[in-house]
Amino acid sequence: MMQPKIGRAIRRRGPQHELQERKLSRYTVQITNGTTTDDEGMIGYDRPLRTFFLQAFPDPETDECALWLGAFIEEYPTLESIIEAARTQGYEVRGLTKEMMLAMLKEAGPPHPPSLGERLGIVR
Q1: Tens-of-pLDDT digits for all 124 residues of the chain?
Q2: Which of 23, 54, 91, 101 has its CA 20 to 30 A from that of 6?
Q3: CB 4 within 8 A of CB 25
């Protein structure tokens, strides 16, 4: 079974002022737009944002991605919604295995409460 790549970033301070880590599971997939292919596209689930994300075709100079979906809170709550959004923009995701899909669906499955910033109206 393919293991996800884990990205770590400091998210916020916990109730006892300890730093908590934010973990993102990311899987490498092939993404094509019909003329070019990115063999190192990334798909995954961002728990704090409660959205699936998809990134591909980074610019070699700026590292900005030509395809970057799932950067906002609850933007793509289902795996199907992000795959369909990519298709409407002319992209196809290939190499997404059953194990990858099950792992991401499992991670997205439990409900995640709104963050403190959301509850205070700072983040929308």
Answers
A1: 444 444 433 333 334 434 344 556 799 999 999 999 999 999 999 988 889 999 999 999 998 999 999 999 999 999 999 999 999 999 999 999 999 999 999 988 877 677 777 777 777 6
A2: 91
A3: yes
